[in-house]
Design a protein that fits this description.
Low-confidence stretches: none
Shape: globular
CATH class: Alpha Beta
Number of domains: 1
Structural class: alpha/beta
Distance between the termini: 32 Å
Radius of gyration: 13 Å
Strand order of the largest sheet: 1-2-3-4-5
Length: 124
């Protein structure tokens, strides 16, 4: 799994583009790096673009993700818009990802439309 991290200075959010086959170990490293990038740019708004990611995450992998968010930035409240391809065959696991994050007290929402994701992310 590869990823690219960039900062949108016009709207003060971090965008992450994930590419390739999902790896829970790579995802954990990505979250840690993204949190550091957010601290450096003084923002905790994140657009996670998974459109080019091959989603092979298991239920066990998905359960681990909220802990990665909390461990990488325990002192701040993240707001994460996670974007997935409309054609995804794994919509149940995507919905489960959002539910498990929200149930852990995280501000995470999943989207299949980039405009909707950004609108939510940038809303107060």
């Amino acid at each position: 799994m590869r990823y690219e991290i960039k900062y949108n200075s016009d709207f003060s959010y971090v965008e992450v583009i994930s590419i390739g086959e999902f790896s829970i170990d790579d995802y954990q490293l990505q979250i840690e790096e993204v949190a550091q990038f957010g601290r450096k740019n003084n923002t905790f708004l994140f657009l996670i673009d998974n459109v080019q990611l091959v989603n092979t995450a298991s239920i066990t992998d998905i359960y681990k993700i909220p802990k990665f968010y909390k461990d990488s930035a325990p002192e701040i409240e993240l707001k994460v818009a996670a974007l997935f391809p409309e054609s995804s065959r794994r919509k149940e696991s995507i919905s489960f990802y959002e539910n498990i994050c929200v149930n852990q007290g995280l501000n995470v929402k999943t989207f299949f439309d980039r405009t909707e994701a950004l609108s939510w992310l940038l809303s107060k």
